[in-house]
TrEMBL record:
Keywords: NADP, Oxidoreductase. SMART domains: PKS_ER (SM00829). Its EC number is 1.-.-.-. This is Quinone oxidoreductase PIG3. InterPro entries: ADH-like_C, ADH-like_N, ER, GroES-like_sf, NAD(P)-bd_dom_sf, Quinone_OxRdtase_PIG3. Residues 24-354 form the Enoyl reductase (ER) domain. Pfam families: ADH_N, ADH_zinc_N. It comes from the Eukaryota.
Length: 357
């Protein structure tokens, strides 16, 4: 064991969620013993060690468990990219704004399904006492993914209209609110149930379309009087590509976060609108980005006042100047198999978080 101060002692071995044989179904998940990550004087950017209190679950975790999601070079093989907890160790020199024991939350390239995580100091924020551990762990991946897509890549302008697919997902619900916060005029969503659409509307969506029972593209065309939208945030990929192109206005922008509907375009896809309407299509992976890029997104989130907006939301403000943290369910990490199965069945509306016990 090594001691970082007279008050904080970090063990050399910690508990973490592991995958039997390296990959497999949810039944392969175990809580086992692994070496605790350590800080190094050779780090090119300041890192801190955080004692994890809670971590967020994301669909990429399911894919990683099954061996279908490439881990970024140098990242921990342990699942999990968002967390909340307390600073347990600091490098000898800096960062000056953090102290041992500070409550924080943030992003990581991996390693959050564990008692301790080593993370760049530039990718965390201090946690206000008004925000719970589970609320804080639900913020980073959803909101920074939404920020990257809407603000950094799509350059969403005030008065523009937006379409968000998978609107009731954790990222989708964050994106609805962030779009309104950034000044969008109308925000449309697709979702799989009337209940999910209703939840999206409660959080600011103008209208929603049930992709299981409606032709969402026809409905969007109807409500926009044939004009379509300026920005689309897509998670579906090939299955929606043609209708997405047809739904974008002149100089429209679309970011693609995932390929839940496949990666191979069907025959007959009409790409002419890309030229005639000057459309911009861009992929927007987050986890594979550099520490510097993710830190820029974290700083932009704070600079735009989003941290303060989240705190207003936690305190009960429901206006468009506040951002809500939508927790669907909080699990004990000993029930991680059940949590993965629940997410795989698309039962959640909003974020799922696990608490370490």
């Amino acid at each position: 064991m090594y001691s970082t101060s007279s008050a904080i002692t970090v063990p050399s071995v910690m508990r973490a969620v592991t995958i039997e044989n390296g990959k497999g179904p949810s039944s392969a998940l175990r809580i086992g013993q692994v070496p605790t990550p350590t800080l190094s004087a050779e780090d090119t950017t300041p890192h801190v060690l955080v004692k994890v209190r809670a971590f967020g679950l994301n669909r990429m975790d399911l894919m990683q468990r099954e061996g279908q999601y490439p881990i970024p070079p140098g990242a921990s093989p342990i699942m999990g990219v968002e967390f909340s907890g307390e600073v347990a160790a600091l490098p000898q020199h800096g960062p000056p704004n953090l102290n041992l024991g500070d409550a924080v939350f943030g992003l990581a390239h991996g390693g959050a399904y564990a008692e301790y995580i080593r993370v760049p100091a530039s990718m965390i924020w201090k946690k206000d006492a008004v925000m719970s551990w589970e609320q804080a762990a639900a913020v980073p991946e959803a909101y920074i993914t939404a920020l990257q897509a809407l603000h950094t890549l799509s350059n969403l302008n005030k008065g523009e209209d937006v379409l968000i697919h998978a609107g009731a997902s954790g990222v989708g619900l964050a994106a609805i609110q962030l779009a309104k916060y950034l000044g969008a005029r109308n925000v449309y969503v697709t979702a799989g149930t009337t209940e999910k659409i209703a939840r999206c509307k409660q959080l600011g969506a103008t209208d929603g379309f049930n992709y299981k029972t409606q032709d969402w593209a026809a409905e969007l065309k109807r409500v926009t009087e044939g004009k379509g939208v300026d920005v689309i945030m897509d998670f579906i990929g090939a299955a929606y590509f043609n209708n997405n192109l047809a739904s974008l206005r002149l100089d429209g922008r679309m970011t693609m976060q995932a390929f839940l509907g496949g990666i191979k375009l069907p025959e007959g896809v009409n790409i002419a609108p890309m030229l005639t309407r000057r459309l911009r299509i861009e992929g927007s992976t987050l986890r594979s980005r550099t520490v510097e890029y993710q830190a820029q997104q974290a700083h932009a989130f704070e600079r735009l006042g989003c941290i303060d907006a989240l705190l207003r939301g936690v305190r009960g403000d429901t206006s468009h100047n506040a951002l809500q943290i939508i927790l669907h369910k909080v699990w004990d990490w000993h029930d991680i198999k059940e949590a993965h199965d629940y997410m795989a069945a698309n039962q959640n509306t909003g974020k799922m978080v696990a608490m370490i016990s």
